[in-house]
């Protein structure tokens, strides 16, 4: 929040009169009024400059009042540069190249792309510790990158952190992620999916990790499904998701 800077040394009602050079003559009333008007005009200019400088520093607003792009590039071919090395090491190698979704935007005011990456499906261990329960588990990551060129995205970004539901799924909790962009949150959903959301100047980056469980094929005459296994523990991959978000942000600048 930007607050109005405190004025230090503001003259009080009993303070000394303005000193005006005039060959030893005392200042006239009109001169005193004119001098005070000039003084307060100068103070007002200083305050306005300080507020604007704070806004530029804190919100990444450019000199033309547009958000600072910070060197980010969001184009239709951006998905090809996405590498999720930390997640791949943790949950399995990507099963294919990142795919570009069809809801991209390339407009003078906003560029947006969305990519999805599926990871290799693995067998889920049974509750008793056996290697194969018959169930399989898989992960998918989705990246949304936006570059706002006309309007500062930070106020809307900050407001979205107060949502209690996103696309019909409840928000379990929201945590601040320090040292990432201008402002970053880890959003943990009630379905155990996780997102890292970052605003950096005019760029907004969201990397989401979801998991799914697939039952075994029961068309082999088995009368019932094997015992249901637990969903993967998503929070174990929190650090990997944050690390890959950081690397994605670097890739968007290359």
How would you characterize the overall build of this protein?
By secondary structure, this protein is of the alpha+beta class. It folds into two domains: 26-59; 78-216 and 229-251, Protein Transport Mog1p, Chain A. The protein has four helices and ten strands; from the N terminus they run ααβββββαβββββα. The protein has helices at residues 29-59, 85-91, 154-160, 238-251, and strands at 99-100, 105-107, 110-118, 122-123, 136-148, 165-166, 169-176, 183-189, 194-200, 203-214. Strands 1, 2, 3, 4, 5, 6, 7, 8, 9 and 10 form a ten-stranded antiparallel beta sheet that branches. α2 runs antiparallel to α4. The chain is globular and about 65 Å long. Mean pLDDT is 76; it is low at 1-26, 35-40 and 42-58. Residues 1-30 are annotated as: Disordered. The chain crosses the membrane at residues 37-61. This is DUF3558 domain-containing protein.
Concise account of the structure shown:
This protein has 254 residues and is α+β, with helices and mostly antiparallel strands. It is 23% helix and 26% strand. It has 2 domains: 26-59; 78-216 and 229-251, 3-Layer(aba) Sandwich (Protein Transport Mog1p, Chain A), CATH 3.40.1000.
Topology:
Layout: H1 29-59, H2 85-91, E1 99-100, E2 105-107, E3 110-118, E4 122-123, E5 136-148, H3 154-160, E6 165-166, E7 169-176, E8 183-189, E9 194-200, E10 203-214, H4 238-251
Antiparallel strand pairs: 1-3, 2-3, 3-5, 4-5, 5-10, 6-7, 7-8, 8-9, 9-10
Helix pairs in contact: 2-4
Region (Disordered): 1-30
Protein name: DUF3558 domain-containing protein
Transmembrane segments: 37-61
């Amino acid at each position: 929040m930007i607050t109005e800077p405190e004025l230090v040394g503001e003259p009080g009602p009993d303070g000394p009169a303005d000193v005006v050079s005039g060959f030893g003559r005392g200042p006239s009333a009109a001169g005193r009024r004119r001098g005070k008007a000039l003084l307060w005009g100068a103070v007002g200019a200083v305050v306005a400059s300080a507020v604007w400088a704070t806004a530029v520093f804190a919100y990444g607003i450019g000199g033309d009042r547009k958000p600072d792009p910070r060197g980010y590039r969001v184009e239709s071919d951006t998905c090809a540069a996405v590498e999720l090395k930390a997640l791949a090491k943790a949950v399995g190698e990507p099963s294919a190249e990142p795919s570009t979704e069809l809801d991209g935007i390339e407009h003078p005011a906003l560029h947006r792309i969305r990519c999805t990456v599926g990871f290799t499906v693995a067998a889920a261990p049974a509750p008793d510790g056996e290697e194969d329960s018959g169930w399989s588990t898989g992960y998918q990551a989705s990246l949304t990158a936006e570059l706002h060129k006309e309007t500062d995205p930070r106020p809307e970004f900050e407001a979205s952190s107060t949502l209690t539901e996103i696309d019909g799924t409840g928000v379990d909790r929201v945590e601040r992620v320090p040292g990432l962009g201008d402002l970053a949150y880890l959003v943990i959903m009630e379905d155990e999916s996780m997102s890292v959301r970052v605003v950096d100047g005019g760029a907004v980056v969201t990397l989401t990790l979801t998991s799914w469980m697939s039952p075994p094929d029961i068309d082999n005459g088995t009368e019932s499904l094997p015992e249901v296994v637990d969903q993967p523990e998503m929070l174990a991959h929190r650090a990997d998701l944050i690390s890959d978000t950081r690397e994605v942000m670097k890739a968007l600048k290359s």
